[in-house]
Design goal:
The protein is an alpha+beta fold. The chain has helices spanning about 5-35, 85-90, 110-115, 135-145; strands spanning about 40-45, 50-55, 60-65, 70-75, 80.
Length: about 160
């Protein structure tokens, strides 16, 4: 056989080997992370829920979701084990160094967008309704005065030659 005909097969087998190797490394790292869990550790599940580990078993974990609320999850459902500082920052909001206390205050609602310091009256509002009949009648008389006929064309049609 010619080595050139075997080259695509060799490249394909090599690519498959590299993909499975990286997937195995990721699985091993996730398993090691789950094995390092201790009671009291903050975790995030694969569904995005943050909880505290209460008890560890062979294949399951007892999580405290809220004070006094416990749930049993599979160990495979733990997406990330968080360090204490990150868990407290996310769940309790304990990181005050990132807050801008001297900056502007942003309201929780849109009241600041609708309120105005000036007194607005109804007279200054723009009328978004239909045009008055006088303007419409004026447009019709202008067309009649021009003396041109529409020659069967609708609005928007052009003379194409």
């Amino acid at each position: 056989m010619n080595p050139v005909t075997l080259l695509p097969f060799i490249v394909l087998i090599g690519a498959m080997f590299l993909m499975t190797r990286s997937a195995k490394k990721k699985q091993a790292a996730a398993a090691q992370m789950r094995n390092e869990m201790q009671p009291g550790t903050g975790v995030r599940t694969i569904g995005g829920m943050y909880a505290t580990v209460k008890e560890l078993h062979d294949d399951t974990v007892l999580l405290e979701i809220a004070p006094g609320v416990h749930a049993i999850y599979a160990k495979n459902a733990i997406g990330a084990v968080l360090d204490d500082a990150e868990y407290n920052r996310i769940v309790h909001g304990d990181d005050e160094s990132g807050l801008d206390l001297d900056g502007t205050v942003v309201p929780d609602d849109a009241s600041s967008l609708t309120e105005s310091d000036e007194d607005t009256s109804d007279d200054s509002r723009i009328d978004l309704g239909k045009k008055s009949e006088e303007k419409a009648d004026g447009a019709e008389s202008k067309d009649a005065d021009s003396g041109k006929k529409s020659e069967g064309k609708d609005d928007g049609e052009a003379d194409a030659k």
